[in-house]
């Protein structure tokens, strides 16, 4: 993203930027690599975050098997399995796994820093929004500041209720950390399904320099426009937010169709929903969809947005999704100033919000098939909040 200040006259004596590899980028956040469009990640503005139990193997295979030329991050994802406590805010490696006489966070990070990843996230456990979670965050900050963290980003996986109930504590804690930070929001469903949370997230990012927002959805673009150092968008729905540990492994849904970004509405929808409810579907002209049409020589450019109907279409849908949001970020980042980035982003959101009425009218005058998220309503700077969407605290 463009910045206004010129180079410092003392730049030659300034310490290197620990986020130089990722600053200003929107990365792809991956857990299941089977359907991820890893070969399409852009060298100039993109990158990949590998998470989950196979994250280290994913990093090694990606770096060894491709001429990628983009930054790669390792996310140990300890927050998926454990709650943080003041005694154990991190999940560290046992002594027999580290080639050192030391144990704890420093030894674990020392081992992981030797990985081929450009940056490593700390193995921070999930931070509840209660007194125990607050003490755990304080303990994690203290350990971070006492550790050599040059190739490390402090992962801060907080329950989304921190944004409204403990925001000041969160801001104060992030400001105390000397290392770069990465905020990860957790909830059973969408962590930003209220205007209050969307507004609070902007406040946190504005107040805490060198803070990223990871494992999210199109909120990554709003975060970039309002001060995030870098962001990542989840490849699948399960990697677009964190889930509290006891809520993992819930009952799977019956819809096997992939989630698809509908550009006009700036939202994710099941492919089956688009197939059933778009009366006059448009053709997408993103690069993957155009290539799909050319390979079939069907005489029409692109691919219908109602065409991603079952699990066989997952890989193509994920490629489409990344092509759409990465194009949006390239367009935003091309603006000449932070103010113009925010203005353009707001205009995009307003146009999308207006499109909802047209799409619903096309389908049925009596049924609102497509509903704008409260986050989109806030990004578009409207005053009304959809009463049918829970404005959870």
Question: Would you give an account of this structure?
Answer:
The chain is an alpha/beta fold. The chain folds into 2 domains: 18-247, TIM Barrel (Alpha-Beta Barrel); 259-379, no CATH class. It has helices at 55-65, 105-112, 131-145, 162-165, 167-176, 195-207, 219-225, 271-277, 287-296, 314-333, 338-363, 374-379, and strands at residues 26-30, 48-51, 72-75, 119-121, 152-159, 181-186, 211-216, 231-234, 259-262, 267-270, 283-284, 303-304. The strands form 3 sheets. The protein has an 8-stranded parallel barrel with strand order 1-2-3-4-5-6-7-8. The protein has a two-stranded antiparallel ribbon with strand order 9-10. Strand 2, helix 1 and strand 3 (72-75) form a beta-alpha-beta unit. The longest helix has 26 residues, at 338-363. It starts with 25 loop residues before the first strand and ends in a 14-residue tail after the last helix. The relative contact order is 0.12.
Compact overview of the structure:
The protein is an alpha/beta fold and 393 residues long. It has 12 helices and 12 strands.
Provide tags for this entry.
TIM Barrel; 2 domains; alpha/beta; eight-stranded parallel β-barrel; disordered C terminus; disordered N terminus; 35% helix; two-stranded antiparallel ribbon; 393 residues; globular
Estimate nothing, just give the exact number of structural domains: 2
Mean pLDDT: 88
What is the count of DSSP helices, taking H or I runs of 4+ residues? 12
Quickly give the CATH architecture of the largest domain: Alpha-Beta Barrel
**CATH level 3 topology of the largest domain:** TIM Barrel
- Report helical residue fraction: 25-40%
Q: What is the SS-derived class? A: alpha/beta
Q: Kindly, what is the distance between the CA atoms of the first and last residues, rounded to a whole number of angstroms?
A: 31 Å
Biggest sheet statistics: 8 strands, parallel, barrel
Low-confidence stretches: 1-12, 384-393
Report the CATH C-level class of the largest domain: Alpha Beta
The whole-angstrom Rg is: 21 Å
Indicate the overall shape: globular
Listing every helix as H and every strand as E from the N terminus to the C terminus, the arrangement reads EEHEHEHEHHEHEHEEEHEHEHHH
């Amino acid at each position: 993203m463009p910045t206004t200040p010129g180079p410092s006259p003392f730049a030659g004596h300034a310490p290197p930027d620990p986020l130089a590899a990722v600053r200003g980028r929107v990365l792809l956040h991956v857990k299941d690599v089977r359907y991820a469009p890893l070969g399409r990640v852009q060298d100039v503005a993109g990158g990949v975050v590998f998470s989950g139990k196979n994250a280290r193997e994913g990093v090694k295979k990606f770096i060894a098997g491709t001429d990628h030329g983009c930054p790669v991050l390792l996310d140990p994802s300890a927050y998926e399995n454990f709650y943080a406590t003041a005694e154990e805010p991190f999940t560290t490696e046992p002594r027999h796994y580290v080639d050192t006489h030391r144990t704890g966070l420093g030894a674990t990070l020392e081992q992981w820093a030797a990985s081929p990843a450009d940056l490593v996230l700390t193995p921070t456990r999930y931070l509840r929004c209660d007194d125990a979670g607050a003490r755990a965050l304080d303990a994690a900050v203290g350990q971070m500041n006492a550790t050599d963290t040059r190739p490390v980003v402090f992962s801060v996986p907080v329950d989304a209720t921190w944004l409204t109930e403990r925001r000041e504590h969160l801001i104060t804690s992030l400001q105390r950390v000397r290392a770069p930070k990465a905020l990860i929001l957790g909830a059973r469903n969408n962590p930003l399904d209220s205007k209050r949370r969307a507004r609070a997230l902007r406040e946190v990012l504005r107040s805490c320099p060198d803070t990223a927002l990871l494992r999210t959805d199109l909120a990554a673009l709003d975060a970039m426009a309002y001060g995030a150092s870098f962001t990542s968008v989840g490849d699948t729905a399960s990697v677009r937010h964190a889930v509290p540990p006891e809520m993992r492994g819930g009952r799977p849904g019956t819809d096997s169709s992939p989630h698809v970004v509908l550009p006009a509405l700036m939202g994710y929808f099941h492919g089956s929903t688009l197939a059933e409810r778009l009366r006059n579907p448009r053709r997408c002209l993103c690069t993957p969809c155009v290539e799909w049409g050319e390979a079939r020589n069907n005489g029409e450019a692109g691919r219908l947005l109602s065409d991603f109907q079952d699990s066989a279409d997952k890989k193509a849908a994920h490629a489409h999704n990344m092509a759409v949001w990465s194009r949006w970020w390239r367009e935003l980042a091309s603006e000449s100033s932070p103010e113009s980035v925010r203005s353009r982003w707001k205009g995009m959101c307003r146009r999308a919000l207006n499109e909802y009425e047209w799409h619903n009218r096309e389908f049925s005058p009596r049924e609102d098939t497509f509903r704008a998220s409260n986050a989109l309503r806030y990004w578009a700077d409207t005053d009304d909040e959809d009463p049918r969407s829970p404005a959870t605290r």
